[in-house]
């Protein structure tokens, strides 16, 4: 009996591994079939995440409309997508549109150009984001407004311009790539956190408004999206609780991982995704259930930071 159990264990593990592999392959193929021939608009497609989203959806056979504020970088992305396209699979040549979401005066006109590309939009991925860091009293009101234009007003103007088409066709999905700071505020990022709170609030409300038209609104909130080759640095980060907390909070996810999660969100029509390791997730719950504890930890971190003289 014991010998039989020992012999069966490797076979059982092998069987489970095989089933997981089959599930992953089926999910991957299903994801691609979901976006096949769909018109997908990606804002800030020239960012790290934007490029990875473009790659994933282009491979899946989507008809891409790539938006960005630099034509040369858009063209480079276009060339990269075309060069790696598999000729044995159906893919569509991406269309390029110049769009700077921080210039809200032109967003309405650009939205018409986006609609003219294919006559409709099936999936809108609001990805663009501008960050700023510094003490609140040293951030000018002009910069506050610029952050709000890029992270809040720009995306909602574009969404409002494309939404009537989705409502009239009773189909569509809007994906907001937001941030953990739409859930909680981190010191020295007042303008950025405010814009992310505002965007999350808008799209949470919009979700309920458009549900009757079969339009899906999804929010994907990672921690910080790190660059391709940046890894957490070594050091004595665990010297205090708050340093350990902020280390886990600020080292975010890789663009490839976020792009794959965006694809899964579209496939499963998820309403909300929080993409983070356990420490940031715990911070959100602590902020909700034990706000005084959360504020105390954050305030302690600020005091310790201010007590250390900066170089230069």
UniProtKB/TrEMBL annotation:
* UniProt GO MF annotations: all-trans-retinol dehydrogenase (NAD+) activity
Pfam families per the UniProt record, alphabetical: adh_short
- Single Gene Ontology BP term? regulation of release of sequestered calcium ion into cytosol by sarcoplasmic reticulum
Keyword Signal, does the record have it? yes
UniProt KW keywords: NAD, NADP, Oxidoreductase, Signal
What's a GO cellular component annotated to this UniProt protein? sarcoplasmic reticulum membrane
- List the InterPro entries hit by this protein, alphabetically: NAD(P)-bd_dom_sf, Sc_DH/Rdtase_CS, SDR_fam, SDR_family_member_7C
| Similarity comment: family membership | Belongs to the short-chain dehydrogenases/reductases (SDR) family.
Q: Which PANTHER family match?
A: DEHYDROGENASE_REDUCTASE SDR FAMILY MEMBER 7C, PTHR44668
Q: What is this protein called?
A: Dehydrogenase/reductase SDR family member 7C
């Amino acid at each position: 009996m014991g010998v039989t159990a020992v012999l069966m264990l490797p076979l059982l593990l092998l069987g489970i591994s095989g089933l997981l592999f089959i599930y992953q392959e089926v999910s991957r193929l299903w994801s691609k079939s979901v976006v096949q021939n769909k018109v997908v608009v990606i804002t800030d497609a020239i960012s790290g995440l934007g490029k990875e989203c473009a790659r994933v959806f282009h491979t899946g056979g989507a008809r891409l409309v790539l938006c960005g504020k630099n034509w040369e970088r858009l063209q480079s992305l276009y060339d990269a997508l075309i060069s790696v396209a598999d000729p044995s699979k159906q893919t569509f040549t991406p269309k390029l549109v110049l769009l700077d979401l921080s210039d809200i005066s032109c967003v309405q006109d650009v939205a018409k150009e986006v609609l003219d590309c294919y006559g409709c939009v099936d999936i809108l991925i609001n990805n663009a984001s501008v960050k700023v860091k510094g003490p609140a009293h040293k951030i000018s009101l002009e910069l506050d407004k610029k952050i709000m234009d890029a992270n809040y007003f720009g995306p909602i103007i574009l969404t409002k311009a494309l939404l009537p088409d989705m409502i009239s066709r009773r189909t569509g999905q809007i994906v907001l790539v937001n941030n953990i700071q739409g859930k909680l505020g981190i010191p020295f990022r007042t303008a950025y956190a405010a814009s992310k709170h505002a965007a999350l609030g808008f799209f949470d409300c919009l979700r309920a408004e458009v549900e009757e038209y079969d339009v899906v609104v999804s929010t994907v909130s990672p921690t910080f999206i790190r660059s391709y080759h940046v890894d957490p640095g070594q050091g004595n980060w665990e010297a205090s609780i708050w340093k350990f907390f902020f280390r886990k909070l600020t080292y975010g996810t890789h663009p490839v991982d976020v792009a794959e999660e965006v694809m899964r969100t579209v496939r499963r029509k998820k309403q909300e995704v929080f993409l983070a390791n356990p420490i940031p997730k715990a911070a959100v719950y602590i902020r909700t259930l034990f706000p005084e504890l959360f504020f105390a930890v954050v305030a302690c971190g600020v005091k310790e930071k201010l007590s250390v003289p900066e170089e230069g």
